[in-house]
Design a protein that fits this description.
By secondary structure, this protein is an alpha/beta fold. It is built from five helices and five strands. The longest helix has 24 residues, at 61-84.
Length: 172
């Protein structure tokens, strides 16, 4: 059995805890982190767009931001592996985050990820755009965990009234 655990800043601990609880002892566990190339590309583009500046690579912030992102991903994966406390492998990918996660989950038996949107109430807004894409397109079963305490069912708003059906307690 192969379990892919998506490691993201702010939610990784909940994913690691869930993986530790649910993955069988003989499971191959892969801790996955994806770094978006958007930040370093935007910094490079901003630098390249400065008027009157010569193209000095030593001043281009894009490569430096990419290095910092890679170092941060390595530290995060190392912390997650320590917290897991059992054998695992780590994978660092770069690109469109949601697409890289879906591609990495190809052939896996389970993908573990955390809700990363509004964590104050139950519902679809508890997933951010990348997580929603992954949940909708994952090529394997998904375990979706809450990064903090699960909100109660009182957080569910009432359903909208149907225009052709009266609400409860009304007579026709």
């Amino acid at each position: 059995m192969t379990v892919i655990t998506w490691i993201v800043e702010g939610t990784w601990a909940a994913c690691v805890d869930a993986t530790r609880r649910i993955a069988p002892d003989n499971a191959q566990i892969v801790l996955l982190h994806v770094t978006s190339g958007d930040v370093s590309a935007a910094a490079h583009g901003a630098y390249a767009g400065l008027l009157g500046r010569g193209p000095r690579r030593d001043r281009d912030p894009g490569p430096r931001l990419a290095e910092l992102g890679a170092a941060s991903a390595t530290e995060l994966l190392e912390a997650a592996a320590r917290a897991l406390g059992r054998p695992c492998s780590t994978v660092e990918r770069r690109g469109r985050v949601e697409r890289e996660v879906v591609a990495a989950a190809e052939g896996a038996d389970l993908l573990v990820l955390a809700r990363d949107g509004d964590d104050a109430r139950l519902g679809p807004k508890s997933l951010g755009p990348a997580s929603r894409f992954v949940v909708d397109h994952a090529p394997c079963p998904v375990l979706l965990v809450w990064p903090r305490e699960t909100p109660g069912t009182a957080s569910i708003p009432p359903p909208p009234r149907h225009p052709h059906h009266p609400g409860p307690g009304s007579s026709r």
